[in-house]
Design goal:
Length: 162
């Protein structure tokens, strides 16, 4: 459990990032828990390293994002999420109900994936797509909620995610 993989240290070194225990720990935790928020990541790192301020977590994540070691995804209406899968222009599926996020491969297999109808003279190097919808679990829940009502009346039932 305590074996610090040299791969991560090497990664920081290669990208010219000063190696600190916090950055190493964050890099590792982001790889283990893709799409976690900064606060979730901070909680895990705090368990490993002791007290780290929220600001320090944000600062370290910012450095890792700037150096392209991790990727930040900012879905509308949600805290930013982080992941270590970088550089492959993959996209995301997000459940509107429970906010679960899944990776989906780049539809075309190479950047920028989508071709803009009119690129206004830009050299487009990335297309970031978020597919919004409802995940299988939430769909199943909805079906058991109202099996007979196709008009989808909003239910006021509080939904505890288990
Ligand atoms: Zn869901
Ligand atoms: Zn992802």
């Amino acid at each position: 459990m305590r074996s610090v993989p040299d791969a991560e240290m090497e990664l920081l070194r290669q990208h010219g990032v000063q190696i600190t225990a916090q950055r190493l720990a964050l890099l590792r935790v982001v790889a283990e828990q893709p799409h976690a928020t900064a606060d979730e990541l901070g909680d895990v790192v705090r368990e490993q390293l002791g007290s780290i301020s929220r600001q320090a977590v944000y600062d370290s994540l910012g450095v890792l994002v700037d150096k392209n070691l991790i990727r930040r995804i900012q879905p509308a209406g949600s805290a930013a999420r982080y992941e270590s899968r970088v550089g492959d222009n993959h996209h995301h599926l997000i459940c509107r109900t429970c906010r679960t996020m899944f990776d989906v491969d780049c539809a075309v297999g190479e950047v920028p994936c989508l071709t803009a109808d009119d690129n206004h003279g830009f050299e487009v190097d990335e297309a970031e797509v978020i597919y919004w919808g409802r995940c299988p679990t939430c769909r199943a829940d909805a079906q058991t909620d109202d099996p007979t009502d196709p008009t989808k009346q909003p239910r006021q039932k509080s939904k505890e995610t288990s």
